[in-house]
Amino acid sequence: MALAFDEYGRPFIILKEQEQKTRLRGIKAQKANISAEKVIARVLRTSLGPKGMDKMLQSPDGNVTITNDGATILEHMDVDNQITKLMVELSRSQDYEIGDGTTGVVVMAGALLEQAERLLERGIHPIRNAEGYEMASRIAVEHLEHIAQKFDFGPINIELLVQTCMTTLSSKIVNRCKRPLAEISVKAVLSVADLERKDVNLDLIKVEGKVGGKLEDTELVYGITVDKDMSHPQMPKKIEDAKIAILTCPFEPPKPKTKHKVDIDTVEKFQTLRQQEQKYFDDMVQKCNDVGATLVICQWGFDDEANHLLMPRNLPAVRWVGGVELELIAIATGGRIVPRFQELTPEKLGRAGLVREKSFGTTKDKMLYIEHCANSRAVTIFIRGGNKMMIEETKRSIHDALCGQESHSQQFYCLWWWISRDFLLNCCRGRCR
């Protein structure tokens, strides 16, 4: 490599190895692209099926992930080839549209390209190969529709759905608890599903995990769990028939947003300022009590002095609750998110049959359970595990089980693959026109 200058004095680099570089064209370029995809397919092939092996992935910052989920494996792989990037996008789109089968689509694509390579060596044009695959796809879909069988299910008859989810969980690291996890997944889906419209909004299913306990302790909560506790240790730990005020405004006096400052040089001025802040806070508490709220959930925090004043006024509160959790709480309880205290009315309060604080393990970690809600369509799958890696892998497994498509999609992959292969080979032999 050498540095040179053009007639305008602008520098440019001359690569001495440029003569040794070549550009692949024609069949060589096609084979190179196919070889790159076959490498990715071979990596994921060992993770497919009930006896598939898990992969241990290490990120640049040292975090370790153990999984056999194809989309997760490809997300952590550092790929440079454009064809392998297409495989990553293929797996990502499968995960986005279907939720499962991310490993199968990549393995199937590798197998089909492997057969296409043999056809290219026989002199068949790539466009003819693509047309053959499209015809094989139509034949496979028609055959699947011909042999498909429909089964009825409902809130009581869920055994077939449970078996489908068990098939999904059989290839996961949580297969020893596949039966209870499958039942939890099916009950969660049926709780949020609109069977008349045949629509399922998986956003209403919150998957939460906390380190500690056993995998068998995983439970389905017909409501919302929040990784928070009551703001004051002496507040009640159990509230029945709760009327919840969901606030996104600060539960404290407003702070000046200017560069000016207030100088307090006497005790009387300090007492006046303190009384004014306390009066402002008393007005906010009184507004909550006037509308009948028995619990306040606030997105923002409030200082310890304000927290201490909540106790004598008999108003339990929870602070620093995230925006996504606030939305789920509003959906589950049928309440409205209130941005200003002036807009708080009794009609905007959420209602829950039971709000309780629960402690876990020897570390006394606490979480808030909001159950028996007015609109129980929002549910939570609360996962327990011995470490963080187990929790994360269980979340991925539950996601696949909720989608519940692996057993059917795997049969489709196998059938479509065999029909496609036989159809293309017959085309090569001149048997199909």
Automatic annotation (TrEMBL):
Localisation per UniProt entry: Cytoplasm
Keywords: ATP-binding, Chaperone, Cytoplasm, Nucleotide-binding
UniProt KW Cell division keyword: no
Any Gene Ontology CC annotation: chaperonin-containing T-complex
InterPro entries (UniProt xref): Chap_CCT_epsi, Chaperone_TCP-1, Chaperonin_TCP-1_CS, Cpn60/GroEL/TCP-1, GroEL-like_apical_dom_sf, GROEL-like_equatorial_sf, TCP-1-like_intermed_sf, TCP-1_chaperonin
Recorded GO MF terms: ATP binding; ATP hydrolysis activity; ATP-dependent protein folding chaperone; unfolded protein binding
GO BP annotations listed: protein folding
Family: Belongs to the TCP-1 chaperonin family.
Record function comment: Molecular chaperone; assists the folding of proteins upon ATP hydrolysis. Known to play a role, in vitro, in the folding of actin and tubulin.
Annotated protein name in UniProt: T-complex protein 1 subunit epsilon
Annotated source species: Gossypium hirsutum (Upland cotton)
